[in-house]
């Protein structure tokens, strides 16, 4: 068998990478805040082909290897749905909610499915606290609260902070 098999094999590997990406995107289609990945490819030639006559069929075949160039994330705006829960939030446009775990490590998410914990703080399902734009957690207590279009968290007329949104 000749070297032609390697060009075909690179196409097969490319197809598998695309299939992996599609499978991941489909598996997460109902995940709140999920952003789809898109693999990109480029044609490349192995180092050994540098000395070949560019007009030869062997050189043309060598330049037909598909290799993964990178994976880009589609950050376009998703569909916003009303949930009826005070603690569910959504972002319009760019940015991520700023979170902090119990060890003080920072995280970012687009998933706005938040809860109010026993201490009255806005948290994720994993217990990470939503941070204010000036830093520090947001405590709303156990009663009703509202979040304005500008991200201000209000309990009655009292502003408890502004949701921290980090631009990427």
Would you summarize the structure shown here?
By secondary structure, this protein is of the alpha+beta class. It contains two helices and eleven strands, in the order H-E-H-E-E-E-E-E-E-E-E-E-E.
State the share of residues found in helices, binned by percent: 10-25%
**Gap from first CA to last CA:** 49 Å
Order of helices and strands: HEHEEEEEEEEEE
Instruction: Indicate the radius of gyration in whole angstroms.
Output: 24 Å
Account of the 3D structure:
The termini are far apart. A hairpin with a 5-residue loop joins strand 5 and strand 6 (122-123). The protein is elongated and about 75 Å long. The protein is of the alpha+beta class and 168 residues long. The model has no long low-confidence stretch (mean pLDDT 84). Helices cover 18% and strands 27% of the residues. It is built from two helices and eleven strands. The longest helix is centred in the first third of the chain and has 24 residues, at 4-27. Strands 3, 4, 7 and 11 form a four-stranded antiparallel β-sheet that branches.
How are the elements arranged and paired?
Elements: H1 4-27, E1 37-44, H2 57-62, E2 65-73, E3 96-100, E4 106-109, E5 115-116, E6 122-123, E7 129-130, E8 146-147, E9 152-155, E10 158-162, E11 165-166
Antiparallel strand pairs: 1-2, 3-4, 3-7, 3-11, 5-6, 8-9, 9-10
Features:
single chain, alpha+beta, 18% helix
